[in-house]
Write a structure and sequence with these properties.
The structure holds 2 protein chains of 2 kinds. By secondary structure, chain A is mainly beta. Chain A is built from 7 helices and 20 strands. Chain A has one domain. The longest helix of chain A is centred in the N-terminal third of the chain and has 14 residues. Chain A starts with a helix and ends with a strand. The radius of gyration of chain B is 21 Å and the shape is elongated. In chain B, strands 2, 3, 4, 5, 6, 7, 8 and 9 form an 8-stranded antiparallel sheet that branches. Classes of the chains: A mainly beta, B mainly beta. The interface between A and B is large, with 68 and 48 residues.
């Protein structure tokens, strides 16, 4: 049994315990100060709710033309960069990992404590116990994973609410689930056993392509032409052309031998996976149809919207190859064989949605809340802003995709077309079970 | 089951590399039950000394596999705890249990013993002995494989002295600051 194997598994698990940096990350300190909610009709709403393409910016609603983050965290990171010399005796990998999971654009005013306990390896001829101490709590019991779904290009022309264009999409996700034996080994300090398989279930998928799109967004009913009030609807129909996709599902790990440490071959790699790929990438497209729908209702100080993307987006790939990868103990190598070829397979794009509500109470008080699911978990945000002339005070609370409650508070000053904002928010992006606190600062031009 | 997500795949790769580098500010502690390895046939050394004088008997060294990848780690302390029974059959004298540790088989008994414990024997009987030793910063323990040799060194005063040294406990505790890159 090799430490690198143990280390790999530990790392994969610890990674999963970390909250997506992206989920809490915003360049806008105002948003950070309200727990992640946005009180303006910004890009997130227009991305997930097609009706918002027809809703004009709120007059005096404070949507900045440009928001520039003030990267105080980068200065801090540069100052501390010597700590990331992997060859230095004081190097701490957890610190580096936390910097990756929680990018140091903004200043970290309270770092989440990192696991610093001793790790004990108890070794016998047929025994290996790894006691991670307090770090055991970071070994997840659920599936862990990472992924992204994006529309990285959206081009087209519009006329009277109709929009014709093409968008490019890319989606990938990978999930890992620990086998029972490995989970007990790491989380419960259970002794490794002979003739036992330790493994991780892996399921990963990536697909991308483009989609000609016909969409409409407009106001069906409502107030005066120069007012925001009204009931807005939006919808889009996409015909997806999948350029390529790949998917792998299986298990990877090792099997212990008759003795753990005294034998000539204490562990044997164990890999068994099916890999699906589209043949003739770029020539034989996958095909599918899906759509976006949404509505927004604006009535004076009240605003409500709901939108969803990629509904029914199932792509059919006519020409798929299925291969099997497995570790052959006879030749001590991974064998690759074609199981099926030129067969049909289907993939789905995850449905993403947003629901938002805002209420402008007057006297400079604005309340807002939203629920966002970008296809990989739901996050809820509730926040408020109170303005006293040029001064703004903000606060909010959120529940992130790990179901952890986070808090935000902040304030800002606005002088004519310029605004300077600061926001503090808690996060669980680190390799720790304790929250950290980050201070975001940004300059906005209105 | 509910998935937990992080931003990008690149993140996972970086995390993997980084955490493999070390285990944070904590130490890695290896608690090795060497006796379990010796029990495969090397836990007993028989001795027979027919005349007055000093002689040694030893067993072939036993290989003990440890976790690999700690070659660049900084060894802090190594504590060796050993115990044995001197099971004497005839004669009298002094029997010393000596433990050798080396990186290879051939050189196991060429160095100095890392642990010694002795006791007097006089006729048939069993004498329990034990000892502990602490080594500081010994890079020998960065090796993934170590060879352990047990030797009985007997000084006979009333020959013939016959019997055996039977190891009852042998533990190794290595404390190091992990450094995998």
């Amino acid at each position: 049994m090799r430490s690198t194997l143990v280390g790999c598994w530990v790392v994969v698990l610890l990674v999963g315990a970390a909250e997506p940096a992206r989920a809490q990350f915003s360049f806008d300190a105002r948003r950070a100060g309200m727990g992640g909610v946005s009180l303006t009709r910004d890009g997130t709403l227009r991305r997930y709710n097609p009706a918002y393409r027809a809703v004009p910016d709120h007059r005096g609603g404070g949507r900045a033309k440009l928001t520039i983050p003030i990267p105080l965290g980068l200065l801090q990171a540069l100052k501390d960069s010597a700590a990331f010399d992997v060859h230095a005796s004081y190097f701490n990998a957890f610190e580096l990992v936390n910097k990756v999971l929680n990018p140091p654009l903004y200043l970290e005013v309270k770092k989440a404590p990192i696991p610093s306990n001793d790790v004990t390896f108890t070794v016998g001829r047929n025994a290996l116990v790894v006691d991670l101490g307090k770090a055991q709590q970071l070994v997840p019991t659920d599936e862990i994973g990472f992924g992204n779904s994006s529309r990285f290009l959206d081009l087209g022309i519009g006329l009277h609410g109709l929009h014709v264009g093409v968008l490019a999409f890319l989606q990938e996700d990978v999930g890992f689930t620990l086998g029972d034996t490995l989970r007990n080994f790491l989380r419960n300090a259970d002794s490794a056993r002979v003739r036992t398989r330790y493994f991780v279930n892996v399921d990963g998928k990536g697909q991308g392509g483009f989609a000609p799109t016909l969409s409409y967004a407009g106001r069906l009913a409502g107030g005066a032409p120069d007012a925001d009030d009204g009931f807005y609807v939006g919808g889009a129909l996409h015909y997806y052309f999948g350029v390529g996709y790949g998917r792998g599902t299986g298990t990877g790990g090792f099997r212990t031998g008759d003795t753990l440490f005294a034998g000539s071959n204490p562990v044997t790699p164990n890999v068994d996976a099916l890999v699906y790929t589209s043949n003739a990438i770029g020539k034989q497209f996958g095909h599918g149809v899906g759509g976006d729908v949404g509505f927004a209702y604006v009535a004076g100080p009240f605003e409500l919207g709901v939108g969803a993307n990629d509904i029914g987006a199932t792509l059919t790939w006519k020409d798929t190859q299925v291969r099997r990868l497995f570790y052959d103990t006879t030749s001590s190598s991974i064998k690759d064989s074609i199981v099926l070829n030129h067969v049909e397979s289907k993939t789905k794009l995850p449905v993403s949605y947003v629901a938002n509500v805002a209420y402008r109470m007057g006297q400079g008080i604005t309340l807002g809340a939203d629920i966002v699911n970008n296809g990989r978990g739901t996050a809820e945000h509730v926040g408020a802003e109170v303005r006293f002339g040029p001064l703004a005070v903000r606060g909010g609370v959120a529940r992130d995709t790990r179901k952890k409650v986070e808090f935000g508070t902040g304030g800002g000053l606005r002088f004519g077309p310029f605004g300077l904002d600061v926001g503090f928010w808690t996060h669980s992006n680190s390799l720790s079970n304790t929250r950290g606190v980050t201070m975001g600062t940004s300059l906005s031009i209105y | 089951m509910k998935a937990r997500w992080i931003g990008t795949g690149a993140t996972a790769v970086l995390v993997t590399v980084a955490v493999l580098t070390d285990c944070g500010e904590g130490r890695a502690i290896f608690d090795v039950d060497v006796y379990r390895f010796l029990k495969s046939g090397a836990d007993t050394v028989h001795y027979t000394i027919p005349i007055v004088g000093t002689a040694s008997d030893s067993n072939p060294p036993i290989k003990v596999g440890l976790l690999g990848g700690f070659g660049k780690s900084v060894v802090d302390t190594v504590t060796i705890t050993g115990g044995a029974n001197l099971v004497n059959t005839t004669g009298s004298g002094n029997v010393t249990f000596r433990l050798f540790i080396a990186a290879d088989s051939a050189g196991t008994y060429s160095g100095t013993p890392v642990l010694t414990a002795s006791g007097a024997v006089n006729g048939p009987g069993t004498t329990a002995i034990g000892a502990a030793a602490t080594l500081i910063g010994d890079s020998l323990f960065n090796n993934q494989t170590l060879w352990f040799g047990v030797q009985a060194r007997v000084t006979a005063t009333t020959p013939p002295v016959t019997g055996k040294v039977q190891v009852t406990v042998l533990r190794l505790r290595v404390v190091m600051k992990p450094k995998l890159l």
